[in-house]
Specification:
alpha+beta, 4 strands
Length: 348
């Protein structure tokens, strides 16, 4: 497996640094910290040739960073970032040759936590969202922080601090022979980043959604309803009015101002409902989400939610709201026609 693992490691490092090169100074700064970490580890273990190469790369990148810092006057490009990734990958192999097998894997991986995590998120995000793997997007770590209004220098400070933290952990773990210390530090960095929604939260929701859909396909519709409403709450057991009340309850967390539902059969409305939030909304709706579902017959159900507060629907939870509306629209489309006309009139 040595050849396979080596190829995967080198290709991974090359792509990790290339994907991270989306903001002025970021790839060169990460390269400086990572190369310096590899150089210190190699020096401690007596790998003098790896130490020289690592320090030379760190020094060259430090000189380059002077001109690549925001706003940059020169850029790495794909060739520059890929060379950094290749050299860092080789240093990860060569600098830890004189230590144990587990530590020789731990130290480079922990030192590369930030680029590796960003690459893993890109693979997960593009796979679960149906995008090609080589399709560029603005969902990388630095893009997320910039979109939150951070200044580029603050983004560099945050990501540089995380990279420095994992580099120090990898170095200390090598000196003290404590692999668990390095892994624990990497885990804390990742969990804190996801928990604070710096990055990774969107991909986590994508994975939860994919898992819910997989369970639904294996265990039927009940699994999807359990994921949305909690165990034991079944739409098909509810009367139309009760299902409508449950839908209102479910959309409240999104700060919805208005909820509309309409079921039509052969262009003739057979059931419709409207709910307006008791809190008065000022101005035009800030966002609107609509879903249409068609039953096996001619019945069509349309559900639309509007919100007056711009912060009520962030991109991370938007598709969860869509899934919720799809589930209810499908239920109403398949169950309202079965209700008698008299019951329909009473429900309306």
């Amino acid at each position: 497996l040595g050849i396979t693992i080596t190829v995967l490691w080198l290709v991974g490092c090359i792509n990790a640094l290339n994907l991270l090169d989306g903001m002025d100074g970021l790839a060169s700064m990460v390269g400086i910290f990572t190369a310096a970490t590899m150089g210190i580890i190699a020096s401690y273990l007596g790998n003098s040739y790896a130490t020289v190469v690592a320090l030379a790369l760190a020094a060259a990148l430090a000189g380059f960073f002077v001109h690549n810092r925001p706003p940059a006057s020169i850029f790495l490009g794909d060739s520059g970032s890929m060379v950094i990734g290749m050299v860092v990958g080789i240093l990860g192999i060569q600098s830890t040759l004189k230590t144990s097998a587990t530590l020789s894997i731990t130290a480079p991986l922990v030192a590369m936590t930030l680029p590796a995590f960003d690459t893993l998120l890109a693979v997960v995000r593009r796979r679960l969202s149906g995008r090609p793997f080589d399709a560029a997007d603005r969902q990388h770590i630095h893009h997320r922080l910039l979109d939150r209004g951070m200044h580029p220098w603050w983004v560099l400070a945050v990501l540089g601090s995380l990279c420095l933290c994992t580099g120090v952990a990898a170095t200390v773990a090598t000196i003290l022979r404590l692999e668990m210390l390095a892994w624990a530090t990497a885990a804390v960095v990742i969990v804190a980043a996801v928990r604070l929604r710096l990055f990774g939260h969107y991909e986590l929701i994508l994975m939860v959604d994919a898992a819910a859909r997989l369970l639904a396909s294996l265990a039927g519709r009940w699994a999807a309803e359990d994921a949305l409403f909690g165990p034991g709450r079944r739409l098909e057991t509810l009367a139309p009015g009760d299902a409508w009340a449950l839908l209102i309850e479910q959309v409240r967390p999104w700060n919805a101002s208005q909820l509309q539902l309409q079921v039509a059969e052969a262009d003739e409305i057979c059931w419709q409902k409207l709910w307006v939030s008791p809190r008065p909304a000022s101005g035009r709706p800030a966002w609107s989400v609509g879903v249409t579902s068609r039953s096996e017959g001619p019945c069509v159900c349309q559900v639309r939610v509007e919100g007056a507060e711009a912060g009520g629907l962030d991109p991370l939870s938007a598709f969860r709201l869509v899934r919720l509306l799809q589930l209810f629209a499908e239920h109403f489309a398949n169950h309202i026609p079965a209700v008698s006309p008299e019951t329909q009139r009473r429900a309306a």
